[in-house]
Amino acid sequence: MSEQCIPPDKYLKLRDQYKYYIDSYNALYQLKTENEEDLNKIYKMIRTELIDSKKFIPQNIIKDILNIIPYKNRYTKSYLYLAKLIYDDYHVKEVINVNTISKFLFYKEYGIRLDNSGDFERIRSGNLDIHTEDTIYRAIMYNDLERFIIFTEREGFDKNQMLISKLYSNTRYSLLELCCYHGAVDCFKFLRTKFNSSITYECLEYSFLGGNPEIMSECLKYKEPVTYPVQKNAIISHNIDFITFLMNEYNVEIYLEYCAYYNNLEAFLVYFDRTNDINLCFVYSSMFNIPSLCKYFLSRGADINAENRDEQTALHCAALKNSKETAKFLISRHININKKDDDGHTPLHKAAIKNSRAVAQLLISHGANISVKDKHQGQTALLYAAYKNSKETAEILISHGININEKDNNRETALHKAAHENSKETAELLISHGINIDEKCEYGGTALHIAAYYNKETVELLISHGANVNEKDNEGKTPLHNAAQKMVKKQLNFLFHMVQMSMKKINMEEQLFIKQHRKMVKKQLKFLFHMVQIFMKKIKID
Question: Which pLDDT tens digit goes with each residue over 422-447?
Fold first, then answer.
């Protein structure tokens, strides 16, 4: 694209035009207060600039606010407070696409479920009180060096301990990594001096979330910022100095998809200012759901059907972020509504994957092909909706006549997909609309075979709706075989639960006892004996 079409002062003009968006989201992502008066000021800005201006709907703002929590969990209460203000003032009934831990925390704080999904029972045991109780983790969060030292001097202190908690964005954290995440510079220095704790790549990555310059500088002495999480976390920080530093000093590329997912329009504009890549910026601009931004790039010569490296168009990206207004604008400009990317996904596939129901409805109303399958797996949008538990989008697809019993290349139906991921809500929807509950896949397994291997919740649902517990796959295995095969020490209760549910319906063969006895007699004889006793009393043995 000729640079004559692009004004040299484009960044300043665009920055000024979208100042309302940039400043509002910077205030959210850079939030460092628990003071109610300060929070009310932020809320007033959001309400005035984003919601009352009719630019954004309250549900999406709540989603964006709550999805920040795993990256800045010290201020969980503040984010919950802001979300609740919007929820009450705008009489919000439902918010979708919020991460599970944030949904649970909102429920725990206010007794309100934001949607019908979410297995909160699994979350309750996820180390959720580590910041409210007197723990070493709380000491790190508040950079309380005096208290931190007391914990390290206790008998049995393990300098190599790892925290596993659902409150954080990743799975495991060392003490030094937690210091980086929280910007706890005093605790960080103490660990380095006293225990010679090693700086990992994760330390560098989390330091961009914590935002402490001393910690970042120390980490950069040992690790190069070449990993994706470093770039991602710099974008999440909404600190433009961090981002330009990485670009200037380490030639780090800005990933526009991260900019859009984490509402960092300022970083997005910096990329455009540096590269003048009109077409790529146009593709990702749709994710901000600001139609005038897309219109700007088109006015400068962008191709309406421009693609990114994955052959996705702006409409694919709009579907990923449920950007309905932008999708409507793109369709009015005759973008290819059924364009496939390099995986064979159309925008409707993307809407199903992300549960972007508003965009899904819009696409279908404008003639999107609901039956098209992807390239590698032969999956329709409904199969993806079931796999991702996108119940609302699944409802839309079913209401428009999609074949509910359609199979993929492995001959799996949407119910098989739901069973894989314990998508209980979507499974229930599929059953209510008459999906074949005992349909077999390529390997002869039903949805119950899969559910028995992976989870108990969908097992309960399937059995309660009459799934055949005696059905055998191509190897002659029933669902109970799968449960027994999966069983390990921590899953004894799961198998016992399934036995209890199944015992009134199964005609159990003698051979099963023999096979399972050989496998489990050494480690689990007592449990097997108990299982046999139950079955002998309740089940007819052939």
Answer: 899 999 999 999 999 999 999 999 99
176 phi, psi to nearest 5 deg: -65, -40
Neighbouring residues of 132: CB distance < 8 A, sequence distance ≥ 6 = 138
Max intra-chain CA distance, the chain: 85
Mean pLDDT of 288-317: 98
Q: Which long-range contacts (CB under 8 A, 24 or more apart) does 141-148 make?
A: 141/74, 141/178, 141/182, 141/184, 142/74, 142/184, 143/182, 143/183, 143/184, 143/185, 143/186, 143/187, 144/187, 145/186, 145/187, 145/190, 148/186, 148/187, 148/190
Q: Is residue 58's pLDDT more than 50?
A: yes
- pLDDT digits over 11-52, tens only? 999 999 999 999 999 999 999 999 999 999 999 999 999 999
| Residue 87 lies inside a defined structural domain of this protein | yes
Residues 99 and 171 in one domain: no
Same domain, 390 and 304: yes
Using CA atoms, how far apart are residues 511 and 131, in angstroms rounded to an integer?
A: 52
On whether residue 352 sits in a domain, the answer given is yes
Number of other residues whose CB lies within 10 A of the CB of residue 94? 10
pLDDT at 126: 59
Q: Are 451 and 459 in contact (CB under 8 A)?
A: yes
Report the number of distinct structural domains present in the chain.
3
Is there a domain that residue 235 lies in? no
Q: Within this chain, do residues 69 and 118 fall inside the same structural domain, yes or no?
A: yes
In degrees, rounded to 5, the angle at the alpha carbon of residue 270 between the alpha carbons of residues 264 and 271 is 95
Residues linked to residue 164 through DSSP beta bridges, in sequence order:
172
Domain holding 113, by residue range, is: 31-123
CA 243, CA 327: separation in Å to the nearest integer?
29
Last residue of a domain, which of 358, 380, 403?
403
Q: Confirm if 39 and 76 have CB atoms less than 8 A apart.
A: no
Domain assignment of residue 482, yes or no: no
What percent of the chain has pLDDT above 90? 78
Question: Quick check: helix, strand or coil at residue 312?
Answer: coil
Q: How confident is the model at residue 326 (pLDDT cuts 50, 70, 90)?
A: very high
Q: CB–CB of 101/80 below 8 Å? A: no
339, 315 contact by CB (below 8 A):
yes
Kindly report the backbone phi and psi dihedral angles of residue 174, in degrees, each rounded to the nearest multiple of 5, phi listed first. Answer: -80, 170
Concatenate the DSSP letters of all residues of 412-459 into one string: --HHHHHHHTT-HHHHHHHHHTT--TT---TTS--HHHHHHHH-SHHH
